[in-house]
């Protein structure tokens, strides 16, 4: 499953499996096939790009959004923390984040946790995932990410919000702090 997850830059990801799921798409090219599901974690210019969402949509695309994203995407299905929805072979659960929501995506016997735009919050420690997508920025330090990963014990972690300045060094520090049971996959900084 890990080989089907693509970092789109900043806080965006694509999970391209039996279903095509996009999380906070931004600055993307129009794909050859539309998305099955688009997830928007919160209203923020860097995470809620209506132009990019439209590149992915078809009549069948399901748009799942946080309450704060509803003003820009009034036709989306709002999920509040701990609410879930099943779509085909996937179950999407919104989970708390400091701004908007995060998501737990259950697909093909894997649980993928997308933390959202957040710092460390107590609710994170209730989540168990096979793959964790965690922010590394001024709100969520490498030390905090390593602490969460040690308690959550995912098999893989992919950090995001990794860009410019000290952030690449933070990602490397996080990788060094992580336990042997968790493999840290650093996104390609050159590509984004």
Question: Which CATH class is shown?
Answer: Alpha Beta
Distance between the termini: 22 Å
Mean pLDDT: 88
Question: Approximately how much beta-strand content do the residues carry?
Answer: 25-35%
SSE string: EEEEHEEEEEEEHEHE
Determine the number of helices (DSSP H or I, runs of at least 4 residues). 3
Q: How does CATH name the architecture? A: 4-Layer Sandwich
CATH homologous superfamily placement:
Ribonuclease Z/Hydroxyacylglutathione hydrolase-like
Shape label: globular
Poorly predicted parts: none
Helicity range of the residues?
10-25%
Number of strands: 13
What's the CATH topology name? Metallo-beta-lactamase, Chain A
Strand order of the largest sheet: 7-8-9-10-11-12-13
Q: Radius of gyration over alpha carbons? A: 15 Å
């Amino acid at each position: 499953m890990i080989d089907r997850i693509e970092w789109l830059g900043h806080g965006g990801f694509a999970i391209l499996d039996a279903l095509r799921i996009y999380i906070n798409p931004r600055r993307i090219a129009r794909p050859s096939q539309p998305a099955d599901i688009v997830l928007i974690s919160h209203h923020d210019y860097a995470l809620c790009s209506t132009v990019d969402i439209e590149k992915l949509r078809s009549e069948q695309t399901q748009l799942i959004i946080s309450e704060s994203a509803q003003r820009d995407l009034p036709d989306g299905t709002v999920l509040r923390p701990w609410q879930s929805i099943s779509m085909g072979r996937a179950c999407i659960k919104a989970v708390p984040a400091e701004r908007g929501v995060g998501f737990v995506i259950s697909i093909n016997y894997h649980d993928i946790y997308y933390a959202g735009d957040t710092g460390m919050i107590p609710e994170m420690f209730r989540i168990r995932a096979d793959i964790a997508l965690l922010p590394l920025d001024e709100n969520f330090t490498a030390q905090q990410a390593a602490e969460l990963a040690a308690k959550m014990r995912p098999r893989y972690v992919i950090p995001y919000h990794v860009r410019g300045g000290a952030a690449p060094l933070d990602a490397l520090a996080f990788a060094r702090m992580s336990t042997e049971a968790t493999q840290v996959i650093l996104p390609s900084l050159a590509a984004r």
